[in-house]
Amino acid sequence: MNICVFLSAADLDDRYTRPAREFAELVGKGNHTLVWGGSECGLMKVVADGVQQAGGRLVGVSVDFLGAKARTNADEMVIAKDLAERKALMLGKADAIVIMVGGTGTLDEATEILELKKHGKHAKPVVLLNTAGFYDGLKQQFRRMEEEGFLPLPLTDLVFFAEDGVAALAYLEESAGVQ
């Protein structure tokens, strides 16, 4: 399964890097492919290293202005012309999506992926990996959107909130019918 991960390229402390590394090892050991932003920096590097060291494949999708930070030993690396093309390419290469901790770029990616799913432009499973309660506020906001009629489908059909990597990967594999 090709698992697209949207996440930060920032250097973060252990409460975020440890769970990310654990998830990456599960992806690699499961012989899955990581589709990610291609960066050799921060949390993106942690996840790519973990997947690669555990035997998984790496498919990076970097962007022109970040090409100098792209990983050089990925199994495949695509350079997009801009962030919009990058998101589209990543979604196109993915069977499933995981949104990990991140800043405004990750939030932009998450909302676009969910908006596309809401409108039926893809039916891929989406997981918000709620490491250290990072997305508790967003989860609360999504519930309010659902309760007040802003979502045309149940929140559970849109996104799965996982508290750890084991739950995230189990949900993705079950959704994809992986044994």
Secondary-structure element pattern, one letter each: EHEHEEHEHEHHEH
Task: Describe the global form.
Answer: globular
- State mean pLDDT (0 to 100 scale): 94
Number of helices: 7
Can you offer a commentary on this structure?
This protein is α/β, with parallel strands linked by helices and 179 residues long. The chain is 46% helix and 18% strand. The chain has helices at 14-29, 42-53, 83-93, 104-118, 136-147, 155-158, 165-176; strands spanning 2-6, 33-36, 57-63, 76-80, 96-99, 126-129, 160-162. A seven-stranded parallel beta sheet has the order 4-3-2-1-5-6-7, sandwiched between helices. β5, α4 (104-118) and β6 form a beta-alpha-beta unit. The protein is globular and about 45 Å long. The model has no long low-confidence stretch (mean pLDDT 94).
Short descriptors:
7 helices; 7-stranded parallel sheet; alpha/beta; 179 residues
Outline the secondary-structure elements.
Blueprint: E1 2-6, H1 14-29, E2 33-36, H2 42-53, E3 57-63, E4 76-80, H3 83-93, E5 96-99, H4 104-118, E6 126-129, H5 136-147, H6 155-158, E7 160-162, H7 165-176
Parallel strand pairs: 1-2, 1-5, 2-3, 3-4, 5-6, 6-7
